[in-house]
Amino acid sequence: MDEFDLIRKYLVPISSIESQFLSNDGAVFKPKNKIDYVVSTDTIVEKIHFKGNESPDLIAKKALRTNLSDLAAMGADPEFYSLSISLPRKKAKSFIKNFAKGLKEDQNKYKIKLLGGDLTGSSGLITITINIIGTVPRGKSISRSKSMANDLLYVTGILGLSHIGLLNLDKNDNKYTKAKLKYYLPQPRLNFSASVRNFVTSMIDISDGLIQDCKHLAKMSNLEFVINLENLPISNIDLLSYEERLNSALIGGDDYELLFT
User: Fold this and answer.
1) Dmax of the chain from CA atoms?
2) What single DSSP character describes residue 32?
3) Are 129 and 43 in contact (CB under 8 A)?
4) What pLDDT, on a 0 to 100 scale, did the predictor assign at position 2?
């Protein structure tokens, strides 16, 4: 089964009418009135962003959700995405079948449509690139650069769980279950971001770790920041010391929670 057969069998059924069911080189959709479009692109690579031995449906969901989190960081609602996958040909059939299953489930969950993309062979590792398009009411997108002096810093969720999950993937203790799930399946905070876009001054999703992403917000607004460690929401996994849990919250990546002012 070649790449065209795989596309016809597994990706065409989950494509949208705007994609013309992947029959042409591009998609066509009509812009909406009084709407701004938010466009973002992100790539995940085997051995760097995922192990490669996960079920392909989990990999699909992680790839899509990390991009959805970029939309959430700007207060946007998901609309469309395009997808490019490069993977070894010997893995192609078994991988794409379950990968498409994961995509379909999250397309329904997050109400987003597939526009098209590309499927190619690779010499070794799997690489997945998603270009995502969201919408936001005219003039209401949130940037990283409009923080003001004396703004308060807020975060959604518990920080450091994804990093703890990554470090303990081979542990069988069920106390790590929530952390491992956070690593495998991030939860983009789309509903929350839409609910606060009229009130926040700046926002970013935490992908590089709290400290690093605080630096991004502060630099873009020419400000400094202070973190009250006593108020920081960190994991309560009692198998780890306070210092380990705090360190994961401060510098561990891939939480995909929102940091905002």
Assistant:
1) 60
2) P
3) yes
4) 65
**Per residue in 71-118, pLDDT tens?**
999 999 999 999 999 998 888 878 999 999 999 999 999 999 999 888
pLDDT tens digits, residue range 169-197? 999 999 999 999 999 999 999 999 999 99
Query: What is the rounded CA–CA span in Å between residue 47 and residue 145?
Result: 33
Give the number of other Cβ atoms within 10 Å of residue 78's Cβ. Answer: 23
DSSP letter, residue 168: T
As given in the structure block, the two tokens for residue 182 are 């956070």
Q: Specify the pairing of strand 113-121 against strand 77-87.
A: parallel
CB burial string 215-224: b at 16+ within 10 A, e below: ebbbeebeee
Regions in the chain scoring below 50 on pLDDT: none
- Distance of alpha carbon 37 from alpha carbon 138, whole angstroms: 9
What does the alpha-carbon distance between residue 160 and residue 260 come to, in Å, rounded to a whole number? 17
Q: Hey, CA dihedral for 18, 19, 21, 24, is it positive or negative?
A: positive
Count Cβ atoms below 10 Å from residue 6 Cβ, excluding itself: 20
Q: Look at residues 37, 71, 80 and name the one whose alpha carbon lies nearest to residue 186.
A: 71
Residue 75, helix vs strand vs coil: coil
Cβ atoms within 10 Å of 105's Cβ, excluding its own: 15
